[in-house]
Specification:
Distance between the termini: 32 Å
Radius of gyration: 24 Å
Shape: elongated
Number of strands: 10
Number of helices: 9
Structural class: alpha+beta
Helix content: 40-55%
Largest sheet: 4 strands, antiparallel
C-alpha cells in the first residue's frame, strides 16, 4: 500500500509542478499545446480550451507543459519566446513555486494536527564549562544559532554540530528573550552528569514544548519549510566538499523504498500517512530548490540563459539564438538522464543488498 502511495505522491508533485507552468503560461498569454502527466505512449487525452490538449501517458516518471516558442523561435505573438523578460521568468519559475507551495501546505495541514512543538534547549553544562569558556550556560537556554546558522527545529542542532566536524563553534542562545553568545567553543574533555569524562562541547540538551497556538502553527510551518530548503543546500555542500558522494544519492526507486520503510515502521496507519505526508513535503521543497539551480535543462538553467541573452541584447544589441540554448539543454538533459540511470542502478543494488556502485 505504501509503495502505491509513494507512486501517487510522485504523480501529484509532478502534476503540481507542470500545473504551475501551465497556469503561469495561461496568465501570461502563452499558447500551451499540451499539458501531460507522465511520459511515453499516450493512454488518454482530452482537447481543452484555447487549443490545449490534456493527456495522461504510460510512464509515471515525469510530465511536461509544451508551450509555443519554448525551444524554438516563433512568430506567434502568443509564443513564450515573444513574451517580456519578467513573463518568461514567471513561467519558468512557476513550477518550482508550485512545488514549494504544495510542500508548505502539507506541513501546514500536519501542524494543525500537532498538539505542540518541540524547542531545543540547554539541559545543563559540564562543571568545567564556565572555567573554560568564561561564562556558564543555564538550564532552559534556548538554542538560537550555531556558527551563524539559525536553529529552527530540534534536529537542526545535530545537523549543525555534524557540519562543524568537531571544529570550534560559535553558539548563541536565548535567555529571557535576550541573545547570549559563546564564541569559539572547542571540543574538549568534560564531565557528564553521571561523573564520566567525555569528549564534546560541554553541554547537554533536551527539548521543551511550545503550545500549538495559531501563531506557532504558522511560525513552525514556515520554519520547517525554510529548514527543508537549507537541507538541500547542506546536501549540495556535502557533495562538493566530498563529505558525500554520488552513490549516496537516492533516485525514484530509493525514495519509494524509503517511503515504504517510513510507512511500515510507523505505529499505525494514521501515523504512517502523516509520516509519508511529511516526507512528501520534504521532497516537494527539494524539487523546488533543485529545479531552480542554474543548470541547463532545469528551470533555473532556462532563467540563467534568459538573463544572459537579455544582457547580451542590452550590451551587444544581439540576442543569443534560441537554437544554442536548445542544443546545450539537450546535452545536459542526456547528462542528467545518465546520472539518473546511475542513481537508479544504485537504488536497485541497495534494494537487493548489493551496496551500489562506488
Amino acid at each position: 500500500m505504501y509503495i502505491i502511495l509513494a507512486i501517487l505522491l510522485f504523480g501529484v508533485l509532478i502534476a503540481a509542478h507542470e500545473w504551475g507552468h501551465f497556469i503561469a503560461a495561461r496568465l501570461c498569454g502563452v499558447t500551451v499545446h499540451e499539458f501531460a502527466i507522465g511520459m511515453g505512449p499516450q493512454i488518454w487525452h482530452k482537447d481543452g480550451k484555447k487549443g490545449t490538449k490534456f493527456s495522461l501517458r504510460a510512464l509515471p516518471i515525469g510530465g511536461f507543459c509544451a508551450m509555443e516558442g519554448e525551444d524554438e523561435a516563433s512568430d506567434d505573438p502568443h509564443s513564450l519566446s515573444n513574451q517580456s523578460f519578467w513573463k518568461k521568468v514567471a513561467v519558468f519559475a512557476a513550477g518550482a513555486a508550485m512545488n514549494f507551495l504544495v510542500g508548505v501546505l502539507i506541513i501546514l495541514v500536519l501542524n494543525f494536527r500537532a498538539a505542540g512543538f518541540l524547542v531545543p534547549v540547554i539541559q545543563g553544562g559540564a562543571p568545567e564549562f564556565a572555567a573554560v569558556n568564561g561564562a556558564a550556560l543555564e538550564e532552559g537556554d534556548v538554542f538560537y544559532s550555531i556558527n551563524g546558522a539559525r536553529i529552527y527545529l530540534t534536529g537542526d542542532v545535530d545537523v549543525l554540530l555534524r557540519l562543524a566536524n568537531r571544529e570550534p563553534i560559535d553558539l548563541v542562545v536565548l535567555r529571557d528573550g535576550e541573545k547570549v553568545a559563546f564564541n569559539n567553543l572547542a571540543v574538549g574533555t568534560y564531565t557528564s552528569p553521571e561523573g564520566e569524562p567525555y569528549q564534546g562541547y560541554g553541554f547537554t540538551r533536551t527539548a521543551m514544548v511550545e503550545e500549538a497556538t495559531l501563531g506557532n502553527r504558522l511560525k513552525y510551518t514556515w520554519y520547517n519549510s525554510i529548514d527543508f530548503v537549507r537541507i538541500v543546500w547542506y546536501s549540495l555542500q556535502m557533495l562538493f566538499t566530498g563529505s558525500a558522494g554520488v552513490s549516496d544519492l537516492n533516485g525514484p526507486v530509493g525514495i519509494v523504498s524509503e517511503i515504504n520503510a517510513v510507512g511500515a515502521q510507523s505505529a499505525n496507519v494514521t501515523a504512517a500517512l502523516e509520516n509519508i505526508a511529511y516526507f512528501g513535503a520534504m521532497i516537494a521543497v527539494n524539487l523546488a530548490v533543485m529545479n531552480l539551480l542554474p543548470i541547463p535543462a532545469l528551470d533555473g538553467g532556462h532563467i540563467l540563459f534568459l538573463v544572459i541573452s537579455t544582457a547580451s541584447e542590452k550590451i551587444f544589441k544581439k540576442k543569443i539564438p534560441i537554437r544554442y540554448e536548445a542544443a546545450i539543454n539537450m546535452v545536459f538533459l542526456f547528462l542528467l538522464m545518465g546520472l539518473m540511470l546511475f542513481v537508479t542502478f544504485n537504488d536497485v543494488m541497495k534494494l537487493f543488498g548489493g551496496g551500489g556502485a562506488q
